Amino acid sequence: MSDSQLYDVIVVGGGPAGSTMAWSLARRGVRVAVVERANFPREKVCGDFVEPAGLRILQAMGIGEALEASTSSPITATRIYLGPRLGFRGKIPYYKPEHGLPAHGAIIPRHVLDHRLLEQAERASAKVYAGCAVRAIAREGGLNHVDVHSAEANFTLKSRLIVGADGAESVVARSFNLEMADRAHISIAQRAYVEGIEAPDGESAVWFDEDIAPGYGWMFPMSGGRANVGVGILSEACHRQGHSVPTAFAATIERLKIRHPGCARATLVSKPIGGVVKMYGGAGSNHFDGGVLIGDAGAFADPMTGEGITQGMESALIASATLLRALEQGRFDAAFLASFERDFRSYFDPSMLLLGFCAAVMRNWHFREFWMRSSLRGCERAMADGEFARVAGATFGGVNVHPLGALQHLGTSILRYLSEGTISTLRHLVSEGSSGREAMLGDFLVWQSGWKSSASADPAWHAAWLSDLLRRAVQLGPQLLSLENPRIRGLSI
Ligand SMILES: Cc1cc2nc3c(=O)[nH]c(=O)nc-3n(C[C@H](O)[C@H](O)[C@H](O)COP(=O)(O)OP(=O)(O)OC[C@H]3O[C@@H](n4cnc5c(N)ncnc54)[C@H](O)[C@@H]3O)c2cc1C
Questions:
Q1: Pairs from 332-335 (Cβ < 8 Å, separation ≥ 24)
Q2: Is the pTM of this model over 0.85?
Q3: Which CATH superfamily does the domain covering 183-278 fall into?
Q4: Does 272 contact ligand 1 (Cβ within 6 A)?
Q5: CA 155 / ligand 1 centre spacing (Å)
Q6: What is the pLDDT of residues 352-411, one digit of tens each?
């Protein structure tokens, strides 16, 4: 074995998680190699939306400004459609410039973002093996033996530590029996680029329809009337209800044209392509003898939105601190690397357990009509009450989730709903009999019918769902008292 083939760390995969990891280690003098199947720039199926916390990391890596300058207007506003109705339109209320978070997101096409990130790792002196696919990994004699296949040759690289950053179909996760395959935490999504969009600058759109529940569609505007349009649905629902994501995608484009005045002339300019996202609710221990899993390989994506670019980079930064300690102390065993799991859980759990609980509640497809009604009411209130919009919006789509704040708002909203609803229900009963479908009684009847249909359609699934909710509520309990969400403050880089 030549010395050049032995590394301290081999990172498999050069997406946002792998490149951030390689950059973080290489700039601290670690001998690190990135083995990446594709030759960059390469297309990666994604919505291309980078949330404020991701932009903050890119800035700290010294590439944020250049990347943002090369893209469209900052994303600061959104439209939310619930079925055909426009429920919310306005500024994204939870984007605040705190702890260096920019008050906007950005659409950065992945062939641009990932290429720039990998170059940054290379500049920090990481060795990049591009166009090289990892086929198999074996741990022998305290080293990882990594079999690599390229168009020119097959060869073996060796390292003390290995990082699985090879996405949702990770060969590293499979090799160490850590692959997460639970459909309740996997989303199937498809996207394409369209042209002819006339949306206001920086205004995205998301939409919810009963036939894509639990899931949503998006339109993220880029420059020159171009946009990234897509739809994502929970894999469990696709499997149980027979949803087809390509069919949903075709329908969603047609609906977008009818509903959104700025999208009436949208025309597909790329072939729709699909992929899967593995979400944090299913994340396992993510460490093993001689290595760790980060990004999609370790199921770090947001359980409500499916966003995983930022979470991938965050998991890389947390794991790079673990690996530096391991290299300093010469400890590469799973027991030592277990500190990665402790560290990522204390960083992500305060926000992600709440998001995971909400996602678990909503994965029951039988309640879809109830959730549409509730979301419509939530949107109406958000249009009138900025503080409610900030907290509720963050729970759906932001890094600024604050469990205690969300709980307080939820409690106040339920009390308000019950008091206003009781008055309105009584008014309907007196003036219109019991047919007041817009009143609380209507919500209750829809909820009750969801409950009945869930329990009768598949009692075993229903019982398992309830016990999952209970388990998650117990896990979530202590987090509700945490005063700070570490993701708002971010990680030291
Ligand atoms: C349709 C869709 C829309 C999405 N929209 C968004 C969004 O708008 N915002 C957001 O934040 N997230 C979004 N996501 C999720 C996001 O794409 C992922 O969470 C993110 O890419 C994870 O980064 P990663 O570095 O972990 O993995 P990846 O980006 O998947 O990178 C893994 C890399 O590993 C390489 N690789 C794989 N196998 C091997 C192998 N055997 N050997 C060598 N290399 C290998 C791949 O070529 C790839 O470059 C979306 C996902 C989908 C499917």
A1: 332/142, 332/160, 332/161, 332/289, 332/290, 333/289, 333/290, 334/287, 334/288, 334/289
A2: yes
A3: D-Amino Acid Oxidase, subunit A, domain 2 (3.30.9.10)
A4: no
A5: 25
A6: 998 899 899 999 999 999 999 988 988 998 899 888 888 888 776 656 666 666 666 666
